[in-house]
Amino acid sequence: MGNTRSESVCRIAHGWQLCASREISETLISDFIRPAVHSVPPRMACQLRRCRVSVVEDLGSPSVASRWTATGVGLEISLATAGREGHDIAVELLLCLGQALWERLSHSQRKAYWLLLDDEISAGTPGEIDEDALKQKRLLLSNCSSAGSSRRLERYGSASFAGTAAEYVHCLWHDVTVRTGPTFLPARQLRRRLELLARWYPAGRGHRLFPRGER
User: Fold this and answer.
1) In a designed cystine with 172, which of 37, 127, 132, 207 is the match (CB 3.0 to 4.6 A)?
2) Which parts of the chain register pLDDT below 70?
3) Which parts of the chain fold into alpha helices (H)?
């Protein structure tokens, strides 16, 4: 008869469920996972529906940081901790939420985000929100054939939105530093994206996107 690992199951913000192996650090849960989830705006959580987050040592491969699956009632997310810092694990969770949220946007929300991306591309905006979105953007714009590919376009839109949604919640969680350079999204375009997300998903009580007093 094989041994089974004992697990702890608890409730976190939005009525979501957290399942963690006993060997998972309590600091990871209390200092990173809980506050990151608490920063998810109520409307965003409502659109994502119920979520069960499992925190484990690994997911079968060192290169796999997370997995998520849509269920009939919400999401099942698994996060790997081996070799990863607490902050990075929490941000990976936010990225999973962003990827899932893309699949649940309304028609009007998708249209608004596509128009925003179209404006950025037409203006020759360099960089992107993260490495994955930048990779997909470069593949999309690499040649005329790729630029006309609906599959390439969808992959870019998905990666771009997921990274933006994750960064929006990240900004609500704690102060962040805007990175600059040719591979990063310029501050003006970044702010425009964050303000769009803030209109759709206003920050919950105790959270603020921009410093108090800033217009």
Assistant:
1) 207
2) 1-6, 212-215
3) 26-28, 34-38, 42-48, 86-103, 107-122, 131-140, 144-147, 150-173, 187-200
